[in-house]
Amino acid sequence: MIDLNRYEVWLVAGSQHLYGDEVLRQVAENSRQIAESFAGADSMPVNVVTQPVQTTPDAIRQVFSAANAAADCVGLILWMHTFSPARMWIGGLNTLHKPFVHLHTQFNRDIPWSTIDMNFMNLNQSAHGDREFGYLCTRMGLARKVIVGHWQDPEVPGELATWSRAACAWQDAQGARIARFGDNMRDVAVTEGDKVEAEMRFGYAVTGYGLGDLTARVDGVDDAAVDALVQEYEEQYDVAATLRPSGAQRASLYEAARIELGLRAFLEDGGFKAFTDTFENLHGLRQLPGIAVQRLMADGYGFGAEGDWKTAALVRAMKVMAAGLAGGTSFMEDYTYHLDRDDMKVLGAHMLEICPSIAVSAQPSLEIHPLSIGGKEDPVRLVFDAQTGPAVNVTLVDMGDRFRMVVNELEVVPPDEPLPRLPVARAVWLPRPDLKTAAAAWILAGGAHHTGFSQALTVAHLEDFAEIAGVELLIIDDTTSLREFKKELRWNDDYYGRAGRR
Ligand code: MN
């Protein structure tokens, strides 16, 4: 469902006519080589396409206008190989709606000490050309990422690849549709938010549907399709005895498959990229969707439980950023703690809806258990432990005057012991720098209990995404000190109150 290969980033080099045609020809050739090298880098998820060297205000306006209109162009790389008087760029930058990277590289890596002459100096000028351009961008208050280093150093295409993933998620969100079945869980605060502001800020539209619209699709599912999906479940998962052909709850497995097919059809027909449901609005559905939500997430849909559309959209963005990377991405909730002071950690889970992309086992267990809330038939769900290793938890909250993103670095660890009676998928983790600091910082920041959890992404992906989206970002990692974090919260309130609403 998510294919980043269709997307492009455009490399636009700046120059001027002062140096003569031979230098401009050389700039164009160098720009072509760099784009080709970036496009061929193993880490690069998108194509990198070179554009003509820019030397006039009119041409700059035109290339930016073309970038705005190109549906598959997720952003630009701007690089001043030679000096390019920056006032030429004002008109174009005023109209540019796509994100951009300011690449600060030099075509020649080394100074040719014994042969350097003024021809070399005329061509390799980014050390001052990019400073001229940087001044203008800062003067105009433009959000961008600045990447510094030689273009053949793998770190440079690596940083560009990370940013490109964020730019893809941004492009994916523009015009995206998010379906809500029912409203938010009653009386809950943090899952609420301003849908108008979200659409203005992030580009996605959140629309609500009655459960009857969904149950009509579920009831209309073809029996043969249900049989085929049950067979697929049996091939992919370790099916519990009560759900097997002669098991007492076999009918519930068919019902779960029917719900998945109806939900999937609804989302596909409506062109939705993410969705929410809530256990309090289930009229007409016999089970709370469990395996259905888990498998839809694994296919790239964003999801938030209890009507949490902000997290649904965030999980979708994280899935786009993570496409093709090792490690899974899921909806998650900080559920319960282990508070041994020498080994404090979190058990993350949800009632049902954890994505099997994070499972350690290739064949998760397919089970049925009662759900103590909701008053429905027992829901079918996949149960598994998460892969161990580094991960991030991300929350997006509505502060009333702005959106705030909080990212916490984690280390997923194995459970101390097997959890034979826990009937849900789960992950156990140590938050950075430690639970005591991380949880205090998270709570002071107003971070939600729901998160987007990823073992594929790093803080850098979220940092680039937040920069593109223009949202406040707070990072909790090994460098976090609570004393400094509290100051950051106070300073940010002042900044966003005065100047942050660009
Ligand atoms: Mn929840």
Please provide a written account of the structure.
The chain is α/β, with parallel strands linked by helices and 502 residues long. It contains 15 helices and 19 strands. The chain has helices at residues 21-40, 57-69, 90-95, 118-123, 126-139, 155-173, 195-202, 211-219, 223-236, 250-270, 291-298, 309-322, 435-444, 459-469, 482-498, and strands at 8-14, 47-50, 73-80, 100-104, 145-148, 177-181, 205-209, 238-239, 272-276, 302-304, 329-338, 345-349, 365-368, 380-383, 389-398, 403-413, 426-431, 450-454, 472-476. The strands form 4 sheets. A 6-stranded antiparallel barrel has the order 11-12-17-16-15-18. A 5-stranded parallel β-sheet has the order 2-1-3-4-5, sandwiched between helices. Helix 6 crosses helix 14 (459-469) and helix 8 packs across helix 10. The longest helix has 21 residues, at 250-270. The chain is elongated. The mean pLDDT is 96. Bound molecules: manganese (II) ion (MN).
Quickly describe the structure:
With 502 residues, the protein is of the alpha/beta class.
Using brief descriptors, characterize the structure shown:
alpha/beta; five-stranded parallel beta sheet; 38% helix; elongated
Strand order of the largest sheet: 11-12-17-16-15-18
Mean of pLDDT? 96
β-strand number: 19
- Which structural class do the helices and strands define? alpha/beta
Supply the number of helical segments: 15
How can the largest sheet be summarized?
6 strands, antiparallel, barrel
- Using only CA atoms, what is the Rg? 25 Å
Distance between the termini: 33 Å
Q: Can you give the helix content as a percent range?
A: 25-40%
Broad shape: elongated
Tell me the strand percentage band.
15-25%
Low-confidence regions:
none
